[in-house]
């Protein structure tokens, strides 16, 4: 990006600014041969071309208008029809839902009435009949209302009204409004009585016969008796009239029976027909199986034919339109409002779902042919076509005349444009035209020549300023340290603004502005400028503070006369910088998040700042703000990362007193030795340098993290002070077993005394046994300390002592953790009491090493890995020849360096910290290749890695804060380092530098107790090492 910008600016700079001189003055023109605006092969006349364009425009506009209008009318007709039938469908859905709800409410009310109504003591059914009749009379759509009982009793009221078919089916006399039927048991015989009444309730006829009808055998009765809520039957034939219908029924609460309401499909069809009367199309009610329950519609409007059957599937009912309608309904679910094609004709369709009862839904479909709504569209289409032809006939001649009149002016402008293209503005074009736009274009030609020269000069100056601004931005981006960055900001502002003085004020954590850089360094730095006065209000009387608080640029001519600002600050600042502030331009420097980072303060001694340079200075201040923000962010990240690293190192030191302050002191010593090596010009160290701060930081981070893997090392291993110690010292278990053996011996002695045996011999035997046990335990306890090396005789004696047995009476498999119980499971169960050796290595003492902890060769680790993770065997631990750690525990201690490397290599370290794993993970390697974990040799170990090895060893030798040892004196520690050097474990040149540069003594004075610091004979130690 930077190379492209610089190349573009160079190309611009190298081009000739002017290539021809006209009478008007110096103007710009492009290099190369001149090219005409229009190819000479193009011969179109302006008025002909304009006429063609206008005619095409008018014709296209007319056609588009006609097409849009017709389409709009068709959509309006379709939308109007759809809206009508949406309302029809919604109204019928609401009415059907209300009808079913009415029937359901009637059933619920009757089912909840008291028992006496259904099972009167007198056996008379007249009160129940009158109640049912009142319900039927008050709800017209209901065909009949009844109830039946388990004993076969049945009471029913049927609304006959004026329906001839019902009256004939019931054989009712003329004038019948309601038919009442009652079935009761009289003297063991079921008797059926019919009574026919008029609207006034007066009887117009009656009859009586043996009852053949048994309500308990009907589906509606059995279904309702089996449920507690309302039930809705499938359509069936009513026994009383032979008509098709539905039944809503519910079990009676206080009596063993069922209440039901009958809804006739014929009544539903009449109800539907009445709702769509006068509307084209039709309306259907369909059950969940797609069968027709009711239909109503205008046969003439839909070409529908009568004769379809109720309860037949829609695609087999009546006219062919129904088959197409069934196909349209079968592709969609839920509510539908759209246009469909039925039998090749466009129809509008509205479908709604009505939930009669939970799980039972009916569909209402309203439809009509679209042709019933588009008659007015045909008339509108004819009117629009006629009007369009009239407009077209008038527009063509008018377009030709207007194009002819405009062509002369356009031709003059075209000729003059050729001259303008070559920057020749010598002609004075006068355009005589009726068109406003062409007249304005002529005036623009006249003003172009006067403006081009000044514009070119301004563009050239702006280009130079922009180039300088780009260069300043690139320079700011390349500065990562605070001081060079501030100097670059000052230098860039001086170039951009031509100011006499530039100062940079930065906002501090204490909410003050502090002078951070100035083009004229004052002898005494001014006091920081607080953003708020003693009352807590913004101190806007001070000009830099005003800009910081307002976050807006400010240009002030004669600031000494401006009453808004404190003259004392201006005068004091002028005296400090030896500059008179005749004009000031102050600009806020903002970060990426809009925070004010500081103020860029520019001063001129004569004249005000030009308005033209203010935008460039604003851009420079924005660049400076972003650069400062980035620098703050980078510095904050470095500080945060260093703090986290120190926390990790401190946590490792705090984890165990056995490491003391190791992680804190090793980096200090390593940095001291690295500084001495960087200054050395002798031998193999002559070419070693840390040239940049990033390199120093990389080494410092590696030194701080050199033992970060110790966070994975168990404390009981690090702190193991005795051989039998795990989380506690198991010598107490061993002592208890000795106590058991001593107690057994004492018991045997007492038994001898009680039984009348040889008392003297028994006492002698007991005393010898007691002495032997005391001596053996003392030996075992001494072996547990690990202070002296053990030889083969000691190991053999330990095995002889351990071979003694004791009697265990209690189960050693109970009260264990899950992990310990799992290890014990492999051992056979022993019968109690069980005889066990005094000291033993048992199978459950061995903890298997997980496969995940077997570090393979891909990391280059070459350490012998013990088979077990831990071996807590008592003889195995007590037989350790030197120290307290078993081979498994020794590996666990040394494994910390493996964990250090693995942890650091997994971190997404930036490029400048890529060698941190190397610096942190090689301080246990030796020049002879005998170290760990990778057994690197001298050729594979860098100088920083060798420095880390010396620092780690020397700190460990001199550390006095370890509970298991005292710190060695300076001379002792240096002598041991010399032995390591002789063995090839550490670098000889660095060891010599360590001594001759005085690093060892400087470190000792900072970190060692004064009692440890003694004289060191450097010459004697280095004698013979050339």
From TrEMBL:
Coiled-coil ranges from the UniProt annotation: none
Transmembrane segments: 46-67, 384-403
Pfam families listed in its UniProt record: GAF, HD_5, MCP-like_PDC_1
GO molecular function, one term: phosphoric diester hydrolase activity
CDD domains linked to this entry: HDc (cd00077), PDC1_MCP_like (cd12913)
SMART domains: GAF, HDc
Domain HD-GYP, chain residue ranges per copy: 807-1010
Annotated protein name in UniProt: GAF domain-containing protein
